[in-house]
Amino acid sequence: MPSKYLVVGNWKMHPATVDEAKVIAKKSRLIAGKLVRTEVVACPPFAFIPASVSRTQAENFSIGAQSVSGDEGGAHTGEVGAAMLKSLGVSYVIAGHSEQRAAGDTDEMISRRIGRALDAGLSVIACVGEKVREESGSHFAFIKEQIKNSLANVSEDKRSRIILAYEPVWAIGAQDAMAPEQIYEMSLFVKKAFADAFGPEAGLKVKVLYGGSVNFRNAADIIVRGKVDGLLVGRESVNMPGFSELLKAVDGIGTGQAQTA
Ligand code: PEP
After folding, report:
1. Distance, C-alpha 166 to centroid of its chain
2. CATH architecture type of domain 5-251
3. Mean per-residue pLDDT over the chain, rounded
4. Residue 71's pLDDT is what?
5. Residue 115 in 3-state DSSP?
6. Apex CA 209: angle with CA 66 and CA 172, to 5°?
7. Residue of 130, 167, 236, 245 with catalytic role
8. Backbone phi, then psi, for 58, in 5-degree steps?
9. Which atom of ligand 1 is nearest to the CA of 94?
10. Does residue 97 have an active-site annotation?
11. pLDDT at position 153
12. Atom of ligand 1 nearest to the CA of 12
């Protein structure tokens, strides 16, 4: 069992107002404070980050950003830099999310974003995942390339701040998550691909999250049978009380109180 499970909430472009964002952040923070085996990272849209950061130290709770600029500063209209995020109290950034890849992000761009985030002292949730699954198993080579290319600029001293999120694109925003047995296979594969790029010790240490239609019903089962270190949660992360039930279920793993499907 990992030291603590990591549950990352990707709010996407939700909620509609800052007041709603404050409520979701506050509820997530309060629940996180009661957890024993679970760390929570809430990733609001950029506009709601200041309202979501707590002035007081929050136990088991951090704020992440959904993206970061690949540039350090200067004439880049619309961009938000890693140092700016850090100065707001952000600790994590998501990079390589499939929705950003669909909007034009290439592995090269993702690698630049990751490089800037690591330089600023942030941790990175690097997303990888195939768009489709073919009988031929071509998704293995596809994911291996994504890992190799998008982490191309990660130096040895910074690789411990990389967390991998395996998100099969076809399972994001879908009705059902991937089957836990398949998740297990992919989490092993993703660790192996990381080990091939950074050495066996790094492969053993890297945390792997699963993302794609996780909810309060399937969360604990995915962690237990999928043998992942945590979850990247989209829709359910802004749905209260669903998210609080999800966190309780994950925290209850191994105590006889986990809610599994
Ligand atoms: C995501 O946005 O990364 C995600 C996994 O979304 P959902 O949980 O809604 O499928």
Report:
1. 9
2. Alpha-Beta Barrel (3.20)
3. 95
4. 97
5. helix
6. 65
7. 167
8. -110, 125
9. 3
10. yes
11. 85
12. 2
Task: Say whether the peptide bond before residue 200 is cis (omega within 30 degrees of 0).
Answer: no
Q: What is the pLDDT of residues 2-58, one digit of tens each?
A: 589 999 999 999 999 999 999 999 999 999 999 999 999 999 999 999 999 988 778
| Residues 161-174 pLDDT 10s | 999 999 999 999 99
**What is the number of other CB atoms lying within 10 angstroms of the CB of residue 191?**
21
pTM above 0.90, yes or no: yes
Burial label, 79 (beta-carbon count in 10 A; 0-12, 13-18, 19+): middle
User: Mutation test of ligand 1: which of 175, 232, 243 has the most ligand atoms closer than 8 Å to its C-beta?
Assistant: 232
**Which residue type is seen at 116?**
R
pLDDT 10s digits, 244-259 = 999 999 999 988 765 5
What is the crossing angle of helices 180-198 and 219-226, to 10°? Answer: 60
CA distance 235 to 212: 10
DSSP 237-248: GGSTTHHHHHHH
Residue 214: pLDDT over 90 = yes
Q: Establish whether 139 is a catalytic residue.
A: no
Burial of 144-171, coded b for 16+ CB within 10 Å and e otherwise, reads: bebbebbbeebeeebbebbbbbbbbbbb
Assess whether pLDDT exceeds 70 at residue 225.
yes
CA angle 33, 114, 195 (to 5 degrees): 90
Structure tokens given for 232: 């990247």
Query: Of 248, 215, 258, 217, which Cα lies nearest the Cα of 9?
Result: 215
Domain range list for the chain: 5-251
